Amino acid sequence: MRVARSDESYDEAERARIDRIVATRYGLSPFEATKLRGEAENLEAEAPDTVRFTRAIKDAVDYEHRIGVIEALWQVVLADGVREAEEDALLRLVSNLLGINDRDSALARQRVEKAG
């Protein structure tokens, strides 16, 4: 949610992409994915700062799965077909805070771009 909202343009393409990611990753129906996204939107608005938020993820998730998180974030960033500077900056920060090196983040982005 935080990455999707970082460019001040949280549109239907991004919401649909988030729903697909969540449905695929967690085996949810479209209805369940949409409901979960709505809950996540509310939680993100109340979530702590990005540093504490990502620290919790880093502590709970192994490196390979954190790369999966970065891939999912790139899918959201690229959902509207435009890479905004704010999105890039936030993704660089989140990658760093999650302990994902620049090379692995770039490879994750390239995989997402290639998959279309």
From TrEMBL:
Superkingdom of the source? Bacteria
InterPro entries registered for this protein in UniProt = DjlA_N, TerB-like
Q: Which Gene3D superfamilies match?
A: TerB-like
> Ranges for the Co-chaperone DjlA N-terminal domain?
2-110
What is the protein named?
Co-chaperone DjlA N-terminal domain-containing protein
